[in-house]
Amino acid sequence: MAKRKWQFTLASNSEAIITTPPLGYDISFNSESENASVNMPAELQLAAKQRQVMAIAYSPAKGIFSTAFMLWMSGSGIHIFNIMVTGMALVNPVKALLGTNDAFKGFDKAAANNKEGETSTAVEPESSDEHESSVDLRLPKLIYISLQIAALALGVYKCSTMGLLPLTSADWTSYVPQPIYFEHSAVPVC
Prior knowledge:
Largest sheet: none
Strand content: under 5%
Number of strands: 0
Oligomer: single chain
Number of helices: 7
Helix content: 55-70%
Distance between the termini: 127 Å
Order of helices and strands: HHHHHHH
Structural class: mainly alpha
Low-confidence stretches: 119-131
Radius of gyration: 33 Å
């Protein structure tokens, strides 16, 4: 069988075929960009991490407006669709509040160090380089929690407009003590 031009073998003794790169491909650009990402200064890496953490912190704000629109479109009647939308508006922020540390897990060096410290008995001092590269998560977590509380308040407001929250005095009449009457009067019927 004669070899065709498009056939090739992966054996080590085959001759290396030098091909021209495709149009628009620059070998020097690719190697420069790889080296630039590896040799990024620590300040730029810290700034990039801080931007990513703040993006995670502000991510609940994107969902607040869509949730508010869905709650507005569902109306104030008590129907199955309204109950489902309102339930999602109440449950999702609670789940997110309980998973706050999971949302920032990739950037939390202190929690990672504590977990590693639990397995080993020796306490190692933190290096100054590791301390400098850690991102402060107090403000992003505070922003994340406050936005989740705002989303939860939106769901509670929807429950109020649907009449599911006991806010009026008529909702509490069963707890009002009945007065005890000492005298009774009646009109005889003839």
